[in-house]
Amino acid sequence: MSVDLPELASRRPGLPVGPGWRTDVATAPVIFPYDGSTVAHAPVGTVEHARAALDAGVAARRPVAALSSAARRAILLDVARELEAQSEAFVDLLIAETGKTRIDCTVELSRTLFTWSAAAEEVAHLHGETVPLDLQASGAGLVGFWTRKPIGLVIGVAGFNYPLLLATHKIAPAIAAGCPVICKPAPATPLATLWLADIVRRAAAVHGAPAEIVQVVTGDAEVGRALVTDPRIGVVSFTGSAAVGHQIARDAAPRKTLLELGSNAALVVDADADLDAAADAVLRGGFYGNGQACISVQRVLVCEPVLDEFVGRLTARIGELTVGDPRLPDTRVAALINDASTRRVLDWIEAAETAGAKRLCGGSVRDRAIEPTVLLDVPETADAWCEEIFAPVVAVRSVPDLDAALDSVNRSRYGLHASVFTRSLAAAFRAIEELDVGGVIVNEVPGFRSDIMPYGGVKDSGVGREGPRFAIEELTVTRMAVIRP
User: Fold this and answer.
1) What's this model's pTM, rounded to 2 decimal places?
2) Cβ count near 62 (within 10 Å)
3) pLDDT in tens, 37-58
4) Active site residue 303
5) Considering the chain, what is the average pLDDT of its residues?
6) 473 flagged as catalytic
7) Annotated catalytic residue, options 294, 371, 386, 474
8) Residue tagged active-site, from 82, 97, 122, 260
9) How do residues 102-111 score in pLDDT, each as one tens digit?
10) Domains and their CATH numbers in the chain
11) 448: nearest Cα among 420, 425, 423, 471
């Protein structure tokens, strides 16, 4: 499969490093997961490119920090307008490099547009406060106030599953905060990020900002290590697996890290729940993005009195999820990002069955895709339950009551999002108070995310929060001023 890259392939070969584009790079094919065909050949960066980007980014800290609020806001809005003008081409590109379905890529593009606009609005809210220093005797006669200042050079490392949106959540808040940013996309999905960087750089030039406000360096783990360990950076913002995120935190220390990591999101079905709504939520929330979303439904805990009825309603509707070519508008599940991921997931399914789980549906491969799979009674020690499967696989377990369900959710080492379906206001508030996760969603999929809300996890699911307002706070530091008139 080949796609038209009107703003990138024809005009901007190479990597956006320094004031221009570095063309002294090797290339590697980007593969369409559906059929294994080559989408394009993308530049592959090296440690030398990473070091050059770091030097340029450090040099750009002061000029980017000096940009007026108006200029930063205008850049963000210009990017949003250009992305919207190129929306159809971006959707086609996302389908090609991620293998996600058309509907999922359309949603990604829509959320991306919203996030750029939301970041622009937050520029006006970046301010400080006065401090009543004379509350203490030592502060009598003093005037105090604090402002927010850019933290410095941002390193943004994004996962493969939502490349355009994840890059946006790194780049847009950095620009709003007055920070230059170096983005490292996943090796499998660099194209949308490279095109986005071109758009940002052209918008920056219009408003007097240096091109180095955003740079992109592709490449392997050594390239990433060079970026995150440089002592001159201000912060590392990473989205990806827990194992890699924890290693980045160790490598980057003592510099600040913002980690949006994996999870095995749980959905609790209380005995009084609307079972049709709960089954619908599993269908919508367990298989979007081909299951490759960190808050897609993976664990379903059903109170024993309604288990059989819930499972019956869920499995009766699995056939609604069309499997096949992600380019077709009716397809809902397609191939995972690569064959290695598919083999791993099939191994996990087999291991769960060996440990006593029952496969209710799916588990086979069709059109290179794993069919929507529902497993029953997966042991809590099985990888398909306790680790992040990142595939269109849902594991169902019965529990005696809500107490047992909440306890089971909390036994996980992860804690990103969880949801509970109930008609009881008391049960809903119990879940909100007791679940040890970053977000509790009541009567909706755990994968619900508004891009302006604080988003992030606890435990092994990470630290820090995304969403433009909250990311901007993470990417700035307070500067205290004390004056004796």
Assistant:
1) 0.96
2) 11
3) 999 999 999 999 999 999 999 9
4) no
5) 96
6) no
7) 294
8) 260
9) 999 999 999 9
10) 15-261+461-483 (3.40.605.10), 266-450 (3.40.309.10)
11) 420
